[in-house]
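Chain X:
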Amino acid sequence: MTKPLTYLAAYAPELKDQVQQMLDQNTLADFLRTKYPDCHPFTRDHELRDYVQTLKARHMKKSASLSKVIYDNKIHVINNALGLHTYVSRVQGGKLKSKNEIRISSVFKKSPEAFLKMIVVHELAHLKEKAHNKAFYQLCQHMLSNYHQLELDMRLYLTELEINGEVY
């Protein structure tokens, strides 16, 4: 019995058939390791924060500052998400203060940098665009020209993880 391809639900049946064939032949992990041979070195929260701040400074200098950037063990399970951007506004005295946080699923501690970058770009785009609309995806592509290809490849990675376990 084949498992449903949860991460590829919105993709064309032909693509899902190709992926299922790779899973049946046990070649998806090899395909991913060939295309993305190495994992990134940013495994600690402070390293992730520096990485995110560097990307933010390069692409979104004028956007709101980030108060917290961390890996989160609970995101994937509880929220069925890969990253979260939270925004809280509070009135302090006569001023409106906001806090922006980015939380990245711990699944990405041991992944290729391209996948981490795609998730970070996605969450950074939420600083300007809250909804997943045309402007949001244009901003993602502005920061990362191959955003959509990386999103598909990252979904392939998650599919392999879910069905067969560790890839790297």
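Chain Y:
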Amino acid sequence: MAAAPGPLVTPDGRYLIVRGRLWRRANPSLPEDTRKRLVAELMAARREVGRALRAGDERALRAARCRVNEAKIALGERGPPWWSDGAPDENRRLVASTGYARWYGELLRGDAPVR
């Protein structure tokens, strides 16, 4: 059985596309051990969000969501962009309303290479 393909990645490697929306990828220049530690922290914080939601604990929920945000900032998925070429950050925007719209449209029509 073949594995499901991963999310679509923009040609410059900055974003994943999920359901037509751009999501900033982690900073590729992070050392692997740092990235793994931060991903583990992110997953732990997300589990805490779930526990707090199930328990109805608003204080724990706020703290857990703060941890999620901090981990995402440390990974480069939020906060200042990790690239330095001056390109705008289009995180969380619909791909059709960004600079990737033409490429994405060509991809949907089968006219562009998939990365």
